[in-house]
Design goal:
The structure is a single chain. The protein is built from 16 helices and 20 strands. By secondary structure, the chain is of the alpha+beta class. It folds into three domains: about 90 residues, Uridine Diphospho-n-acetylenolpyruvylglucosamine Reductase, domain 2; about 120 residues, Uridine Diphospho-n-acetylenolpyruvylglucosamine Reductase, domain 3; about 190 residues, FAD-linked oxidase, cap domain/gating helix (Vanillyl-alcohol Oxidase, Chain A, domain 3, 3-Layer(aba) Sandwich), CATH 3.40.462.40. Helix 8 runs antiparallel to helix 10, helix 8 packs antiparallel against helix 13 and helix 13 runs antiparallel to helix 14. It is globular, with a radius of gyration of 24 Å. The model has no long low-confidence stretch (mean pLDDT about 95). The structure holds flavin-adenine dinucleotide.
Length: about 475
């Protein structure tokens, strides 16, 4: 083009921002209604169930339905360097699926098909968005059982379970999500699709990239299919309840039980947890107890009966005020329901901050006592519950809603709980992950060479740093 005086001028082409370019690519690749930019709908997908974690403003939420669509989204995001936050059902407790400013939320909730149940070889292949309970129900129709059972199983996705390496109530006997993952289909940061892992019982070809993906909190790739190990349905369980007047006796009993036998569940609830549930949904729980142990044994026949008797003896020896065996399946279900309700019950009581330390079982009693001391020192309520058989405790700090001074004391108590966990040879997180909540504590837990490896491994999976950037890595 020439100017009026005949000089050549540069024509400025209309500029398309990286965000607009990615949205345009998503609109082409995805079905109508599967790209959402409506500011009224975005907040639903902006954060998970954690408290005390930051959440930014996303540009859009996309809902792919196929692996190819995920691949198309990632190719565009990679080309234009737009950050992507993978999201399952948003039940996480560390800010892992919280939005970042300018990010695209890639939510897999419309990818919920079970693709294959292979009974002979004992596995299921599923899309990632299906809820844990839905998958369990599906495979049960084929006479099979999927073991990992987070307390959130009715509202968390399999993809989220894989990416947090979720634990659960029966993991004490049957292992955590990692133990169930045989293989994964993953869309890499640049949009390439890779099949990781195996179908066979054994297989050690190459580095264990499947294992590396498990617990990577959406920072390595998008899981679009999980191949999960199934088991035969276990025998109905016998439930033993032990009531304690001293929480550290409950910790001791849990450690002793695990030395003597293998229960299929060993959960603890302290008085604050029992009271919170009872206030929220009254069901006749004994709120005068200092702590309850809920134990299940699913070993069939005489061996199971002998184990149940042994567990009762151990609890009595450790100082239980009352021990009984529940023969009533409805009562057992009610007690399990109470255990699963603790987090919503505490949520209803005020502002809450949940810890997730994993401690050696030998230190359970000491840690539980120390959590109580932390509560007193900081003038906050701490309700402790969790998977005692795994040494995985959830001391949860509850403060009056909106009380900023109490919130500050809660943060201090939160840090002190992590310090107790580390000081006794434990870990800052047993199952919920790091997200954006525990990055400083992760820095403390890892030594320098390990921190360096973390950064370089992340770089190998995600060279442009677009996958859930900033999350889950150690930070000082
Ligand atoms: C009441 C309650 C009880 C709970 N009980 C337990 C428990 O017993 N055990 C336990 O382990 N957890 C528990 N949790 C925590 C939570 O449910 C688990 O962490 C769960 O695995 C998260 O699944 P989600 O689908 O909600 O994932 P989200 O919260 O959506 O995401 C979790 C992480 O996974 C990533 N992600 C999700 N899907 C994908 C994908 N397809 N590809 C790549 N990355 C992905 C996200 O980026 C994020 O980093 C509980 C939570 C609540 C609210």
């Amino acid at each position: 083009m020439l100017s009026q005086c005949g000089e050549a001028v540069l024509t400025s082409l209309p500029l398309v921002s990286p965000e607009d370019a990615v949205l345009a690519a998503c609109a082409v690749a995805l079905a109508d209604g599967d790209v959402v930019t409506d500011p009224d709908r975005l907040p639903t997908y902006q954060r998970d169930r954690s408290t005390g974690t930051p959440a930014g403003e996303p540009i859009a939420v996309v809902f792919p339905r196929t692996t190819e669509q995920v691949s198309a989204v990632m190719k565009a995001a990679y080309e234009h360097r737009v950050p992507v936050v993978p999201r399952g059902a948003g039940s996480g407790l560390t800010g892992g699926s919280n939005a970042l400013d300018g990010s695209l939320i890639l939510c897999v909730e419309r990818m919920r098909d079970v693709l294959l149940v292979d009974q002979i070889n004992g596995y299921v292949e599923t899309q990632p968005g299906i809820f844990n309970t839905e998958l369990r129900d599906h495979v049960a129709k084929h006479g099979m059982w999927y073991a990992p059972d987070p307390a959130s199983k009715d509202f968390c996705s399999i993809g989220g379970n894989v990416n947090t390496n979720a634990g659960g109530l029966c993991c004490v006997k049957y292992g955590v999500t990692r133990d169930a993952v045989l293989g994964l289909e993953v869309v890499l940061a640049d949009g390439r699709i890779t099949q990781l892992g195996r179908r066979t019982v054994k297989g050690v070809a190459g580095y264990d990239l499947t294992g590396m993906m498990v617990g990577s909190e959406g920072t390595f790739g998008i899981v679009t299919m999980a191949r999960l190990r199934l088991r035969p349905i276990p025998a109905p369980a016998t439930t033993v309840v032990a009531v304690f007047a001293d929480i550290s006796h409950a910790g001791q009993a849990a450690a002793d039980i695990m030395l003597a036998t293998t229960p299929s569940m060993l959960e603890v609830m302290d008085r604050a947890s029992i009271t919170a549930v009872e206030n929220w949904r009254p069901m006749g729980l004994d709120t005068s107890a200092e702590a309850l142990l809920l134990i299940q044994i699913d070993t069939p026949g005489d061996a199971g009966n002998a184990d149940a008797t042994l567990v009762q003896e151990i609890c009595a020896r450790a100082g239980a005020a009352e021990v009984y065996q529940s023969e009533d399946p409805a009562e057992a279900e009610m007690l399990l329901g109470a255990r699963r309700m603790i987090i919503p019950a505490l949520e209803a009581q005020g502002d809450w901050l949940l810890d997730d330390v994993a401690v050696p079982r030998s230190e359970l009693a000491r840690c539980m006592r120390e959590f109580q001391e932390i509560a007193e020192r900081n003038d906050v309520l701490i309700a402790t519950f969790g998977h005692a058989g795994d040494g995985n405790l959830h001391p949860t700090i509850v403060t009056p809603r909106g009380d900023s001074a109490a919130a500050e004391r809660a943060m201090k108590a939160f840090g002190e709980i992590l310090d107790v966990g580390l000081a006794c040879g434990g870990s800052i997180t047993g199952e919920h992950g790091v997200g954006s909540l525990k990055q400083h504590a992760l820095f403390q837990e890892l030594d320098e060479p390990s921190r360096d490896l973390h950064v370089r491994i992340k770089d190998a999976w995600d060279p442009r740093g677009i996958l859930n950037p900033g999350k889950s890595l150690p930070r000082w």
